[in-house]
Amino acid sequence: MRTFALNRLSEPVLTARPDFNAEAYLKGSFSVFRGPDDYEVAIDFDAWATDLLRGRKWHASQQFQEMPKGGCRLSLRLNNIEEIERWILSWGTHATVVRPRELARRIRKAAVVLAKRYSGGPD
Asked: Under a CB-based contact definition with an 8 Å cutoff, are residues 72 and 11 in contact?
């Protein structure tokens, strides 16, 4: 099975695959990336982000828990962390990874690279 971005195809042709179930195929994926693992992901968000997150369905497995001071915890069960890493980075300082540690390390590494890239530059 291969995954393509439809906007990169010049003349896509729909073919029938009666044995294919997209929902089953993508179960555990945040979007379209698949993996062989099983991650229990938990992310804490501040009050600003919580207001934007509340009431939205981000993933079939999500659990949304209101926290003190207006924040929330979003928990998901995923089979890979590539896409969720980029999604968390898009929330900037409004999101904090609680688990898994591997995901927190990846976010930390990206933050270090970004801090170096932007240190000493024009204000």
From this structure: no
In the chain, domain spans: 26-107
Quick one: which H or E segment has residue 64?
strand 63-66
Amino acid at 15: T
Burial of 64 (0-12, 13-18, 19+ CB in 10 A): middle
Architecture in CATH of 26-107: 2-Layer Sandwich (3.30)
> Residue-wise pLDDT tens for the chain (123 aa)?
666 666 777 887 777 777 876 666 666 666 666 777 789 999 999 999 999 999 899 888 999 999 989 999 999 999 999 999 999 999 999 999 999 999 999 999 999 999 999 897 666
Start-to-end C-alpha separation, the chain:
47
**CA 96, 102, 106, 112 torsion-angle sign:** positive
* Cα–Cα distance measured from residue 112 to residue 12, given in angstroms and rounded to the nearest whole number: 41
Question: Helix 82-90 and helix 101-118: axis angle, to 10°?
Answer: 50
